[in-house]
Amino acid sequence: MLDFIIDFLWVLFYTLRDVLPILLLLVLFQVFVLKQPIPHLKKVMLGGVYVVLGLALFLIGLEKALFPIGKIMATQLTELAFVGIPENEAAKWWSYYWIYIFAALIGFATTIAEPSLIAVAIKASEVSAGTISQKGLRITVAIGVAFALALGTFRIVTGTPLFIYIMAGYIVVIIQTIFAPKTLIALAYDSGGVTTSTVTVPLVAALGLGLSSAVPGRNPAIDGFGLIAFASLFPIIAVLGYAQFMELKIRFSKIKTKNDAF
Amino acid sequence: MRYKQYFLGIQRKLRLALMDLLPIVLVVVFFQAVVIRQPLPQIGEVIVGFLFVILGLMLFVEGLEIGLFPIGETMAYALAKKGSLLWLMIFSFALGFSTTIAEPALIAVAKEASVISSGAGLIENNQKTRELFAMGLRLSVAISVGLAILIGVLRILKGWPLYYLIIGGYILVMLMTIIAPDEIIGLAYDAGGVTTSTITVPLVAALGVGLANVIKGRSPLVDGFGLIAFASLLPMIFVMAYGLLWF
């Protein structure tokens, strides 16, 4: 128990140091540049205490729950006995199909409920004057992330270089940018950040690192990272793709009603 | 009456934190019960950890909403209105830097990266070097996010088209990939996604939308966004440079 309290105090100390720059920035600018007293000072201070305490608790919980879960799942799903391969035989990439399914499910489940994606979906439907439906966009992005994580785990299992996938993704994004409705481009680019929430990132990182140390012949230092990069690239492609699809659909139905009129 | 409102606020935050975790818990429980059919090792510790995550996230978000966000938003708005370019630039950089240093996901990933790198013999295997490596990683990401926000704000002021800058950034990423050591590439690409979560996104979005509102002829929906896109591009370039320095 005593150990735990000492640990907690250390984490609290480090957290305080991490949050200090924001507090300094806000106070200095308010007092010296804007030359105004800080509004609701009591509330701001209470908020600061909550932030430090909350961050410290979160970091401890992360260490005890999210990191171990990601690693344990990766190890369990790649054990030879579970995959069903005899001791002296090499595993093929498709033997690890449960890992791909697990990664896809985690991607879909965490994205569909993500509050910041809901906010982006509402804005996108406003900007597009209703041609983009909120629900449709959320499902599209969630499927995009599911596919991204499955592909990312496939990359770790096969050990192919990360940059090939990411470059191909960039080229797709650039081509899509040329043809996509201009009003949606900034929003689509920003959506890359929304799927990687504070809870998802550590879990997905641990999954990748666990997988790369469990699969024979993979090196965590080279193959372990990269899943988050997949998860932040694919939403951009999904949002741009969805916007283009809806535009084409509307154009098509207009042509159709015109033809029907004749 | 005030207390009632307060409890309703806490309840909402608790629900948000649960919403973040529930999908993960459901998928993991399903796999453990149906696919793997083995008891989860260290189950007690994991449950305690999950409770900590929920409680911590709830307090953290509550604290941000009652304390930091309102003051940050009014400040971004006031500075945009004040019209001093120099102070606006300094504020943009400092905002990006300080919110990134406190970003929980980045703290977690940087620590993990230092353990992996020392395990692979890329950096010296002792506590001090690991801490130094993790802190340096966070600093380089924070500086790059600060610069990204600064460039993004300049873009909104000058009205440069977003996609030129993004495509230019992609080309730089590709060039850096060629010269950067293999061991840093995965981490660098991940750094882009890590920076844009809990604290940075709302404050930076407030700055962008505030600016676009104040400047004539800008639409907040078209010009206000796009700041976050920069904040996920530049860290990749900077972390690859950081890798060149260490490995």
Give the topology:
The complex is a heterodimer of chains A (262) and B (247).
Chain A: H1 2-33, H2 41-78, H3 80-83, H4 97-112, H5 115-127, H6 134-158, H7 162-179, H8 185-194, H9 200-214, H10 220-223, H11 227-261
Helix pairs in contact in A: 1-2, 2-9, 4-6, 5-6, 6-11, 7-11, 8-11
Chain B: H1 2-36, H2 43-82, H3 85-101, H4 104-119, H5 127-158, H6 162-179, H7 182-194, H8 200-214, H9 220-223, H10 227-246
Helix pairs in contact in B: 1-2, 2-8, 3-5, 3-8, 4-5, 4-7, 5-8, 5-10, 6-10, 7-10
Quick overview of this protein structure:
By secondary structure, chain A is mainly alpha-helical. Helices cover 80% and strands 0% of the residues of chain A. Chain A has two domains: 1-65, no CATH class; 79-261, no CATH class.
Overall tally of structural domains of chain A: 2
Low-confidence stretches of chain A: none
In the predicted model, the low-confidence regions of chain B spanning at least 5 consecutive residues are none
Total of DSSP H or I helical runs spanning 4+ residues of chain B? 10
Along the chain, the helix and strand elements of chain B come as HHHHHHHHHH
Helix content of chain A: over 70%
**By helix and strand content of chain A, what is the structural category?**
mainly alpha
Strand content of chain A: under 5%
Keywords:
heterodimer, A: 262 residues, mainly alpha, 11 helices, B: 247 residues, 0% strand
Written overview of the protein:
With 262 residues, chain A is an all-alpha fold. Chain A is built from 11 helices and no strands. Chain A has 2 domains: 1-65, no CATH class; 79-261, no CATH class. The longest helix of chain A is centred in the N-terminal third of the chain and has 38 residues, at 41-78. The radius of gyration of chain A is 23 Å and the shape is flat. With 247 residues, chain B is mostly helical. Chain B starts with a helix and ends with a helix. The relative contact order of chain B is 0.12.
